[in-house]
Amino acid sequence: MADWMLLSFLSFAGAALVVFLIAVRRGMFVGMEEAKYPLLSVEEPDYYTPEWAKEDGDAAQWK
Questions:
Q1: pTM recorded for the entire structure
Q2: φ, ψ for residue 44 (rounded to 5)?
Q3: What is the largest CA-CA distance in the chain?
Q4: In tens digits, what is the pLDDT along the chain, a chain of 63 residues?
């Protein structure tokens, strides 16, 4: 049974290596650093900060 496990592992690893090399040759990994900037510029509402934490009224007493 171990021989079939090794054979299947080598088959899948070889196929993954071939797909990875094709992707590298096509340039799919070029400019990955610049892909984050459009996502970081999206404005969306703040759902996680409660309203009482956004107010500055209580912040003055802690200074």
A1: 0.54
A2: -140, 155
A3: 72
A4: 899 999 999 999 999 999 999 999 999 999 888 888 888 888 888 888 888 787 765 555 555
The answer to whether 29 touches 21, Cβ cutoff 8 Å, is no
Tokens of residue 13, six digits: 């690893």
CA dist., res. 17 & res. 9, Å (int)? 12
Q: Which helix (H) or strand (E) holds 20?
A: helix 2-26
**From the centroid of its chain, how far is CA 1?**
37
Contacts of 52 (CB under 8 A, 6+ apart): 58
| H-run or E-run covering 47 | none
Residue with tokens 């003055």: 60
